Amino acid sequence: MSLHGIKAGYAAADAGDAEQLLTALTKLQAQSGPFDVLVYNAAVLRPDGPLELDADTLRVEFDVNLVGGLVAAQAVAPHMVAQGEGAILFTGGGLALEPYPEWTSLALGKAALRSLAFSLYKELAPKGVHVSVIAVCGIVEEGGPFDPDTIIGEYFRLATKPDGPTDREVIIQPPGTDPHYNDPERKHAATSITPLHARSRS
How far is CA 171 from CA 5, 58, 88, 100, 136, in A? Predict the structure, then answer.
């Protein structure tokens, strides 16, 4: 498929199944050549509390929320290192910065993904490959503070002109937006702390 002179292809896979994911990446590479940019944006969005979440469910969801990102990064990094450039971008979230019990599994996954991104950045930045984790701290809506065009623009910037260590983590939290958007009814106000990036705006 080609749009505006850009060729695009697709391959479906379960992000929590390493074999399927690698097969899909191999297929795409055969269609379009080695990857210059990877965006890992997969997650299981299922509410559950820390006292109800069972270990088997957590393992299954971690395969999507974290392990798939590691598998994908390991698959594309060798070519990027060989050419001395490239970008690996992970979609994080506000739950990595201030978790809430209703989203225990997702919060654990996003926190672990953040740590993975930082480790990969330290490993790959000296070899010319940029790694970022991007926390979109709000609901993506057209025309709103988290307009998809604005967010896409930030991903494009990180893929093409990142600003070194400053951009290993990018938190999208426009002034006036709610850093506690995951707790709109303020059920956990007494036990929550405004994340550091938003304290000067509160």
Answer: 31, 26, 16, 18, 6
Q: How many CA atoms lie within 13 A of 67 on its CB side?
A: 16
Q: According to DSSP H, which parts of the chain are helical? A: 18-32, 55-62, 68-83, 104-124, 148-160
Cα separation, 64 vs 17, in Å, equals 8
Q: Which of 112, 12, 132 is nearest to 61 (CA)?
A: 112
pTM equals 0.94
Q: Indicate the length of the chain as a whole number.
A: 202
Q: Is the pLDDT of residue 2 over 50?
A: no
Name the CATH superfamily, with its identifier, for domain 33-201.
Answer: NAD(P)-binding Rossmann-like Domain (3.40.50.720)
Question: Domain segments of the chain: what residues?
Answer: 33-201
Q: Is the pLDDT of residue 200 over 90?
A: no
Is the CB of residue 130 less than 8 Å from the CB of residue 80? no
